TrEMBL record, chain A:
Keywords: Lyase, Pyridoxal phosphate. It is an enzyme of class 4 (lyase). Its EC number is 4.2.3.1. Belongs to the threonine synthase family. The modification N6-(pyridoxal phosphate)lysine is found at K127. This is Threonine synthase. It holds the Pfam family PALP. The lineage of its organism: Bacteria, Bacillati, Actinomycetota, Actinomycetes, Propionibacteriales. Its cofactor is pyridoxal 5'-phosphate. It comes from Nocardioides ginsengisegetis. Residues 93-394 form the Tryptophan synthase beta chain-like PALP domain.
TrEMBL record, chain B:
Coiled coil: none annotated. This is Molybdopterin converting factor small subunit. Signal peptide: none annotated. It comes from the Bacteria. Transmembrane segments: none annotated. It comes from Nocardioides ginsengisegetis. The lineage of its organism: Bacteria, Bacillati, Actinomycetota, Actinomycetes, Propionibacteriales.
Length: 426, 91
């Protein structure tokens, strides 16, 4: 029996279990292709570029996938997780609903529109997907602490998953985060750390801690290559739920840009594996104007992204220095999509629009995405005759304050029929 | 002018495993030159062939990303804390 040994940074690094990372065969630099052995590594030693999982995929069939559980592990053959992943305690996220959005489509003039509603995951955001993959990696690396810097949703997911897995969690957030997001972490962990600063400051701190502490698995720092693969499942599910085909257009929120790049990676893998027919599709990125470094670069036609200091109600998207931003530009340009941004008022309006057309209460990230969809139609950047999917990545109860002042009772009346009749609603 | 530089894990092969080293210089560019004099080759890891900061490395002077300051010309007064950190995505 052969064993895979991690690239040793310290002699005491434990041996990895055979098959611990499924069909992943190593890590590879996205920039220069430099190969690194599987381990808690994330930056290329040659050029600092992001390390990604490289696979030796088996032949996977639609039938095998369909026979799997109704969660992300149905795609376990395409993820860096062991074949017995269902045996370890996890939150079993994924296989969320893909809803036909006829009312919203009619409102926006889009013939064929779907909402991929990821707000129904265990902690009500898409982050449960990435955390499930990160937890598997952390476990296989024998990590003592499960940690993250977060714009809120990731902290919720890490704290909950760590609690269920019985591993200590320490989560770091900007101190000005929405109260519900703070509570949704603190309820699962006694180690929520609020940092005075924005996400980029929190991220810097976490990277420094990751460089000092042994045995800490920062989901989006030193186990980032494994974590990021979890977002591919959004792409797999959309294709499978459409009857094993790709949509023509997809609109995805952008903070760091990781999710968007992984949905594209998922579509490319499905084509390569012959699970869907090869066809063109357009990818659109959505940002809020108060934190739109990728959209600004897209519109300026440049390749470099100038970081910004975020100022928007879409706090879950408030990453001013998005590390995967250049890949978002590449993908949106390559596929013929675009990156667009909207104001905070438009974010609020879009939250209410989605709620009143489809009965889906999204958080500010989803408001940003739906609002950008609307703007893409209005500016003629999106072909309304093509099948379109918009991703709702998080739940509105987490950002209640965003709309608390814009919605409320239509009238406050005395309990009499006359008073009701006077409202004109009878 | 003496400054303190935090070294990321992937560059500690140059510093003999040290995570924090001292260097001298009045600007970030001078500090990197001085660093390279002590730890040959390290500058070429942080800067690209054109002498600019690599795309996936963030350098902080104090707590500020130098891209919000004057990039390589950013002043580094005595006692400044400099951090070199790989960019990471996902939040
Ligand atoms: C609800 C929600 N949507 C979207 C994103 C953006 O994801 P990414 O950083 O992968 O671009 C985040 C978090 O970062 C989020 O919390
Ligand atoms: Zn590289």
């Amino acid at each position: 029996m052969s064993t895979v040994v991690a690239e040793t940074t310290t002699p005491s690094e434990p041996t990895l279990r055979e098959g611990a990372f499924g069909h992943a065969k190593g890590l590879s630099c996205r920039e220069c292709g430099h190969a690194v052995e599987l381990g808690p590594h994330y930056a290329c030693p040659e050029c600092f570029g992001p390390l990604e999982i490289a696979y030796d995929f088996p032949q996977v069939t639609r039938e095998e996938i369909e026979a799997g559980p109704a969660n992300i592990w149905r795609y376990k053959a395409l993820l860096p997780v062991p074949s017995d992943i269902e045996q370890s305690p996890n939150m079993e996220p994924g296989f969320t609903r893909l809803l036909r959005a006829n009312n919203l489509g009619r409102e926006l003039g889009i013939d064929n529109l779907w909402v991929k509603d990821d707000s129904t995951n265990p902690t009500n955001s898409f982050k449960d997907r990435v955390v499930a993959c990160a937890l598997s990696a952390a476990t296989e690396f024998h990590a003592k602490v499960f940690a993250c810097p977060s714009t809120g949703n990731l902290a919720n997911a890490v704290a909950a998953a760590g609690a269920r897995a019985g591993i200590k969690t320490v989560v770091f957030i900007p101190s000005n985060l929405e109260k519900p997001k703070q509570v949704n972490s603190a309820v699962y962990t006694d180690s929520l750390i609020a940092v005075n600063g924005n996400y980029d400051d929190v991220n810097k701190l976490a990277s420094e801690i990751a460089g000092e502490e042994d045995g800490w698995a920062f989901v989006n720092v030193n186990v980032r290559p494994y974590y990021a693969e979890g977002s591919k499942t959004l792409g797999y599910e959309i294709a499978e739920q459409l009857g094993w085909r790709l949509p023509d257009q997809i609109v995805i929120p952008v903070a760091s840009g990781s999710q968007l790049t992984k949905v594209d990676k998922a579509f490319q893998e499905l084509i390569k594996l012959g699970l869907v027919e090869d066809k063109p599709y357009k990818v659109y990125g959505a940002q809020a104007e108060g934190c739109s470094p990728v959209s600004v670069a897209y519109k300026a036609g440049v390749d470099a992204i100038r970081p910004v200091k975020p100022d928007t109600i879409a706090k879950s998207l408030a990453i001013g220095n998005p590390a995967d931003g250049i890949y978002v530009l590449d993908i949106c340009r390559r596929t013929g999509g675009a990156v667009e941004d909207i104001t905070d008022d438009q974010v609020r309006e879009a939250i209410v629009l989605l709620a009143r057309t489809e009965g889906i209460f999204t958080e500010t990230a989803g408001g940003t995405t739906v609002g950008v969809l609307k703007k893409l139609v209005e500016t003629g950047q999106l072909d309304t005759s093509l099948e379109t999917v918009v991703i709702n990545t998080g739940h509105g109860l987490k950002t209640l304050d965003a709309v608390a002042d814009s919605v409320g009772p239509a009238a406050t009346i005395d309990p009499s029929y006359a008073a009701f009749a006077a409202t004109g609603l009878a | 002018m003496s400054v303190s530089v935090r070294i990321p894990t992937i560059l500690r092969t140059y510093t003999g495993g040290e995570s924090e080293v001292t260097a001298a210089g009045g600007t970030l560019a001078e500090v990197l030159d001085d660093l390279d004099a002590s730890y040959a080759g390290i500058k070429g890891r942080i800067l690209d062939e054109a002498g600019q900061l690599r795309r996936f490395v963030n350098v902080y002077v104090g707590n500020e990303d130098v891209r919000f300051l004057d990039n390589l010309a950013t002043a580094t007064p005595d006692g400044t804390q400099i951090s070199v950190i790989p960019a990471v995505a996902g939040g």
